[in-house]
Amino acid sequence: MSAHHLTEQALPSWRRAVLKVGSNLLAADGGGLTSQYAQALAAFIADSRAAGRQVVLVSSGAVAAGRAQLRAHAPAGGDLAARQALAALGQAPMIALWQSLSPQPVAQVLLTHDDLRNRRRYLNARATLRELLALDVLPVVNENDTVAVDELKLGDNDNLAAIVAALVDADLLLIASDIDALYSADPRRDPGATPLARVTALTPEVLAMAGGSGSAVGTGGMHTKLEAAAKAAAAGIPTVLFSGRDAATVEALRRGILRGTLFDAARTRMQARKYWLRHAPAASGSIQVDAGAVSALSGRRASLLPGGIVQAHGEFHRGDLVEIIGADGAAVARGICQYGAGEVRRLAGLHSSKVGEVLGYSYGAEVVHRDDMVSLGEIEATGEVDA
Asked: Which of 14, 40, 168, 185 could be bridged to 250 by S-S, CB 3.0 to 4.6 A?
């Protein structure tokens, strides 16, 4: 079915999104990269920026670009080391393609799943991406294929995009593909396959509809796209799948109209975030705060600054989830700490402007940022997390 005949629906409201673009949309027929489809997607990003929105781009295409750089000398097989070498070679032309299409400065961000599993590197990656967005820069994220092993073999940029969406607190994950929607069966093999306009839950029946990779240059397929949608849904982020090859579909996105498949989120983004913060295992240590901080943290969406801290109990590290307690020892909030216990002890009671002076470095003025914290009083008052 043509994308022109898909059911039109409103694109979910969003202020920050992650857009994943696959190799099939960037690889030229004769090798290398082409702007044929990327140009319309870049125009969508530019329009979104003009409307006050932010986009993080997750782009494939480095291996295809590297192969074209070597031409006749390019390795023909699928040897992992060879593919990693091609990815390293192709990163520069892939970034150059997006810079040539973007009115914004473009920044390359290379990540592996290990970067996102390690708490400290996770916080550093998030801080970098947030700062790039604040500077009105277009981050172009890719897997660090030269050091990744399982990720490169699995072609996991779909899942990486979902993880990045959660990392930057995105409102929406957009997956531009060479297929226009999720179908009830593989439309390349079953002429009776019908497109699904909306998926409210990724059940085993829905997952069974996934097929394999669509072409030789792409290593992902519908299955990895559904995995990505499931990860995003768990983080409270809806996903849309659409054809990046259909100019009318991409132009409709610019008008807030989706011709493709919408995957609903399991709960709102804030609910998902608060649920995780409320129920995830916390470090054994805690941060004790004064009465003023207790009042500020009780449902008022305030960050925890050094001035409100009395002391740190026990041990915890930067990136650990810690409980924040009052003078009576009762927990008032939980959050991800930007500093380790020893650093918190040195900062306790100080003005936030003194952080760099005391430590010799700074991860920010907030010891626990409000976006990384849930007030237990707020939960008890609203019951929002367990909805």
From this structure: 40
220 is in an annotated binding site: yes
Structural domain that includes position 112? 3-266
pLDDT band, residue 74 (cuts 50/70/90) = low
Distance CA 251, CA 259 (A): 10
Write down the pTM of the prediction.
0.77
Q: Which of 266, 288, 322 is the last residue of a domain?
A: 266
Cβ atoms of 89 and 32 within 8 Å: the answer is no
Count of the separate structural domains present in the chain: 2
113 is in an annotated binding site: no
What local confidence, expressed as pLDDT, does residue 214 receive?
44
Assign 216 a pLDDT band (cuts: 50, 70, 90).
Answer: very low
Q: Based on the domain organization, do 163 and 294 belong to the same domain? A: no
Instruction: Say yes or no to pLDDT of 98 above 50.
Output: yes
Write the secondary structure of 321-349 as one string of H (helix), E (strand) and C (coil): EEEEECCCCCEEEEEECCCCHHHHHHHCC
Which of 266, 296, 321 corresponds to the end of one domain?
Answer: 266
Least confident of 70-84, 184-198, 331-345: 70-84
Is 222 a known ligand-binding residue? yes
Residue 164 is part of a domain; what is its CATH number? 3.40.1160.10
Residues 249 and 306 in one domain: no
**Residue 177 is assigned to a ligand binding site:** yes
20 annotated to a ligand binding site: yes
Write the CA distances from 200 to 69, 161, 193, 233, integer angstroms.
43, 20, 19, 10
What confidence tier does 371 reach under pLDDT thresholds 50, 70, 90? confident
What the block records as the tokens of 182 is 């999720």
Q: Is 128 annotated as a binding residue?
A: no
